[in-house]
Amino acid sequence: MDQKPSSRIIFSLVCLLILSPPIHGQLDYRFYDTSCPNLTRIVRYGVWSAMLNETRMAASLLRMHFHDCFVDGCDASLLLDDSDDIISEKSASPNKNSVRGYEVIDSIKADVEKACPSTVSCADILTIAAREAVFLSGGPFWYVALGRRDGTAANRTAANEQLPSPFDSLTTITAKFAAKGLDTKDVVVLSGAHTIGFAQCFTFKNRLFNFNNSGEPDPALDTSLLRNLQSLCPNNVSSNSNLAPLDPVTTSRFDNVYYKNLMNSSGLLQSDQALLDDSDTASMVSDYSRYPYMFFRDFGASMVKMDSIGVLTGGNGEIRTNCRVVN
User: Fold this and answer.
1) Which residues are annotated as a binding site?
2) Model confidence over 182-204: pLDDT tens digits?
3) Helix residue ranges per DSSP H, the chain
4) Is 67 a catalytic residue?
5) Domain ranges of the chain
6) Which of 24, 67, 305, 324 is labelled catalytic?
7) How high does pLDDT run on average in the chain?
8) 177-216 residues labelled b (16+ CB within 10 A) or e (exposed)
9) How far apart are CA 154 and CA 42, in angstroms?
10) With pLDDT > 90 as the criterion, what percentage of the chain qualifies?
């Protein structure tokens, strides 16, 4: 039987009170208690409605938050459109035709503006939305410190260079995380976000037909999964944008099955399966595959760390009234 939401909240809170790092700068768990007391309810309803329309949106919102925080911090720079003064991050290679859900954040922002005009940043809305997407998918609940302000610039170059890629080695991914103040444990834990969502065939097709230019499939890939993926992603360019679930077992549920898949040689992305190539990361994968509560606890703690990357507070940045443009 599924664990009740209230029980998951209590469990997650106890863990995070023990394990969470200090709140960054001027962030505060009660930042909007007076100025926008219904903020969480508004965001939760917006995320719930979007997921009701398309379950896949949960993973999309979580990924959007990740891609925002890894480029100059959690400042909603990813949400900015091209303009005379802005070269948008949306058109960077890791984001173009990949990151999605911008219209969901637009809708939530509009509802928040109606309730609390010029009060809540897009960065805070996206941070809460990512937490709600996980929780409403059956995952952990963690408390989010608020008070971020929105950036007034975008950085397409950094988006192209700093975001981890499914083609990166574990060493490269770990280095990119370290540059953001995240450690190897955070790499393993946050990779667990791939328990929900889909990947386009081009991100893993080399494993199916020509692994490392060998002309053969990746020998580490489970043979049954290999056959299914070769059918879904035939070896031609037209299949590149076809979608495959990152976790084919419980595709829309946030759980620890992702790690069980890795233990069974059924990780979809090479960068995921590579977690078993290092003894330290392999040990963590094994633990999370056996202890879902441990994964939930650590995922919340790692998200709190990521949520604090490069945040703008106080008089820095601004509170955008439209997430797509600076004021």
Assistant:
1) 68, 71, 73, 75, 77, 89, 164, 194-195, 247, 250, 255
2) 999 999 999 999 999 999 999 99
3) 5-19, 39-53, 57-69, 102-115, 122-136, 156-162, 170-178, 184-191, 206-209, 223-232, 257-263, 270-273, 279-290, 292-307
4) yes
5) 5-163, 185-298
6) 67
7) 93
8) beebebebbbbbbbbbbbbbbbbbbebbbbbbbebeeeee
9) 27
10) 91
Residues making up the binding site for Ca(2+) = 68, 71, 73, 75, 77, 89, 195, 247, 250, 255
DSSP secondary structure letter of residue 312:
B
Binning the chain into helix, strand and coil, the percentages to the nearest 5 are 50, 5, 45
Count how many residues are written for the chain.
327
Q: Write the class of the CATH domain 5-163.
A: mainly alpha
Binding residues for substrate: 164
- Type of residue numbered 108: I
Query: How far separated are the first and last CA of the chain, in Å rounded?
Result: 48
pLDDT at 277 over 70: yes
CATH number, domain 185-298: 1.10.420.10
